[in-house]
Design brief:
Layout (H helix, E strand, L loop, with lengths): L1 E5 L5 E3 L1 H8 L8 E5 L11 E5 L4 H13 L4 E8 L13 H11 L5 E4 L1 H11 L5 E5 L9 E7 L4 H14 L1
Parallel strand pairs: 3-7, 4-7, 5-6
Antiparallel strand pairs: 1-2, 1-4, 3-8, 5-8
């Protein structure tokens, strides 16, 4: 069993796959799912919930992406730490294999890079209003977390832009 730690409450036991399956129908645009390395900090924003998976990051990432792909309501917007590209193998053994493995797993997805501190701040801010599910893995490679911001699957960004332009034209 994996430990689940809500940001503002006591720990409980849960299965991380069951948690993803139970939460995904409740999550929508502006919610986040973070697949974090083992040293990711426990944040205190009220909407952040941390679950210890005791699993590998590749396994968790593949499971989460498959679950999102099978949903009817959300799609992933994926972010990774910009620092990861600059971490040398000599300082972090396994980082080259990790980058290769994640390249394979994330193939077909647009992946945006941002500074680690900026992504952490975005999660903290989002957690003030929205639910953020943090899935901690056993991975011990720095700057390796996969940040997934959920967006609406059935309403595209370009459709939103066109609608807002029509609204502005009527005002």
């Amino acid at each position: 069993m994996a430990a689940a730690l809500p940001a503002a409450g006591a720990g409980t036991e849960t299965d991380w796959r069951g948690k993803v399956n139970a939460m995904l129908p409740l999550l929508g645009h502006r919610n986040w799912i973070l697949i974090a390395d083992s040293a990711y900090p426990l944040q205190v924003s009220p909407g952040l919930e941390t679950v210890e998976t005791n699993a590998g990051q590749a396994e968790v990432t593949q499971y989460v992406l498959k679950a999102i792909a099978g949903s009817t309501h959300v799609r992933p917007e994926i972010f990774m730490d910009a620092e990861l590209a600059f971490v040398p193998e000599a300082d972090a053994p396994g980082v080259s294999e990790y980058r290769r493995q994640m390249g394979d797993i994330l193939r077909g997805h647009e992946v945006q890079s941002a500074l680690h501190e900026k992504l952490i701040a975005q999660l903290g801010e989002a957690g003030q209003t929205f639910h953020v599910l943090v899935l901690k893995t056993k991975l011990t490679v720095p700057y390796s977390s996969v940040f997934i911001r959920l967006n609406c699957k059935y309403w595209a960004t370009d459709a939103e832009t066109r609608m807002r332009a029509r609204m502005a034209a009527k005002q």
